[in-house]
Amino acid sequence: MTYSYYPGCTLKTKAKELDRSARLCAEALGANLRELDNWQCCGGAYTASSDEIATKLSSVRALLEAESREEDIITLCSACHNVLKRVRNDLTNDANFAFKVNNYVKPEKPFEGKTKVIHFLEFLRDEIGFDNLREKVVNPFTGKKIAAYYGCLLLRPSGVMDMDDPENPKILEDFIRAIGGEPVMYPYRNECCGGYVALEDKSATVKKSEKIVASADGFGADIIITACPLCLYNLESAKGESEVKYFTELLAVALGIKEA
Amino acid sequence: MDLKEQVLIMSGVDVRKCMACGKCSGACPSYNEMDYHPHQFVSMVKKGNIEPLMKSESVYKCLTCYACIERCPRGVEPAKLIEAIRLLAVRPQGSNHIKADDIPSLLDPELPQQAIVTAFRKYSK
Ligand code: SF4
Ligand code: SF4
Ligand code: SF4
Ligand code: SF4
Hints:
The complex is a heterodimer of chains A (about 260) and B (about 120).
Chain A: E1 2-6, H1 16-28, E2 32-35, H2 57-68, E3 73-75, H3 78-93, H4 95-105, E4 117-119, H5 120-128, H6 130-136, E5 145-148, H7 158-161, H8 171-178, E6 182-184, H9 202-218, E7 223-226, H10 229-237, E8 243-246, H11 247-254
Parallel strand pairs in A: 1-2, 1-3, 3-4, 5-6, 5-7, 7-8
Chain B: H1 3-11, H2 23-27, H3 38-47, H4 51-55, H5 58-61, H6 67-71, H7 78-90, H8 103-106, H9 113-123
């Protein structure tokens, strides 16, 4: 199993642990993640306007490089995943967009849609399988109450992201069960933490994140897990009782790669 | 072409589908920080009343979390109107909501790069 890997800029800086633990886990699960050679920052946000072309070109280039390698792309950061997957959707479903983009990029071969964008969680569910994953666990999180935090970008818009039911998702809870933990259900798991507004108005993002963390804490969570560096930052800023971790950090512990 | 037509083309939204139920605003995590709320974007665009929305703080408070889109019973997609109006507000020369020089004073050393690139994408051209 070989995949093209799009780490994104935050995984090279503030979220090195997300990158490192995911690579080690993939290796332990028999998958080869080959980083794209010339990836550029996706910009962190997909701009939903029919006349926006330039801001999507870095994603287009990543898709073209992966398709020329005949590989799917694996992503980790929720934001990168959202941007790449939505640009892929435009490229394959919007002929006008594809035409304009090709005018800029002049690809040797236009994007055909063979390359898919797969989030690491989908890789675990659909390529490895949670049942197989469970068998590889050597340090289960027995008795640990773990709250899944989806945030928004993994799930919405659901028609394009197509990862899970946007209002009642379960992929992270199934992951938690696979590593031996007990999922905590709480109402704020798919509400936004405030995202990038943290730059300009931190009190607004802290307020939103406090609601989320207080809800998870109230339902007895020991740990909150996320896939997104900005979710992690915002939830940590709320200073709740639970620790906030990347899901891959727990996976690395469960697989015996990393000390608990 | 007028501003309303421009917003409709950019967003691809059909404002006539709205039944004014207010569910989008009920779902919005930024409701309290907004002067105009998601359902008002829909009704004001319908009336062609775009300029007050362009000047509104709401366009910088929307998180693009898409809760309003996911939960609208009529498939109206209010966040796409907000995005189009924000673009109309920041695209003209000198209209950036955040400038590169503003960033250092806002920086918290732990803030992930993702927040900075995203805010830039949202707030400037
Ligand atoms: S969006 Fe960039 S490349 Fe994508 S967000 Fe993740 S860190 Fe960056
Ligand atoms: S940072 Fe907030 S905006 Fe990003 S995915 Fe996380 S929940 Fe959504
Ligand atoms: S939820 Fe949809 S139908 Fe209801 S007010 Fe908002 S846009 Fe209109
Ligand atoms: S996308 Fe914007 S307007 Fe819609 S619910 Fe989220 S913050 Fe509110």
